[in-house]
Amino acid sequence: MKVIAVIPAWNEERTITDVVRSLEGLAEALVVDDGSRDRTADLARDAGAVVIRHPVNRGLGAALGTGLEAALLRGADVIVTFDGDGQHRASDIPAVIEPIVSGRADAVIGTRFSGLGHMPAIRRIANRVGNLTTKLFFGAAVGDSQSGFRAFSRAAAEKIRIRTDGMEVSSEIVAEIKEHGLRLAEVPIHAVYTDYSLSKGQGFVMGIRTLGRLFLHWARR
Length: 221
Hints:
Elements: E1 3-9, H1 16-22, E2 28-34, H2 40-46, E3 50-54, H3 60-73, E4 78-81, H4 93-101, E5 107-111, H5 121-138, E6 150-153, H6 154-159, H7 169-179, E7 184-188, H8 195-199, H9 204-220
Parallel strand pairs: 1-2, 1-4, 2-3, 5-7
Antiparallel strand pairs: 4-6, 5-6
């Protein structure tokens, strides 16, 4: 079974080498360098990843869309999405993909609300807001809608259509899972929070913009 980890990355030269190397033996690393201005692409390639590069920064959603399409073209049986900032542990991949491998689920979300890692209060509040928004707009209730650690069977990935470019993609993916009637499982994962990984998340202003874009996406569906 071919497992490919899609890693969206923007200016992640501080962490991308360790992230790619941590996946060895667990998944093929496919890094989508989203217009980085640093050495992200070169370091990822040197660490053994397949690298696709956007010439300009297009956003998280665009990078994930590119990555999913590329992973399907490379013959993936299971696709994992995995952050490039060091927040996730590659050792959690077997548990995250197990519901798919065993045939119990089509898609899996790794939930950080599990006690396996302390989530800072501000990030916990932001995620609660994301969960509520996802439920209100799309009728999909999940425990961690904003998690970047997910897994999809090949058949599920072929159904999912990513139309958004920014961070609203996390809620869009949950909406796609619900719309296509895919079986969803949630698996506890560890979360590693550092000053660096926290700096990569959404601030207040970006959060408001994401909510606005989600509303527009909902209105167009």
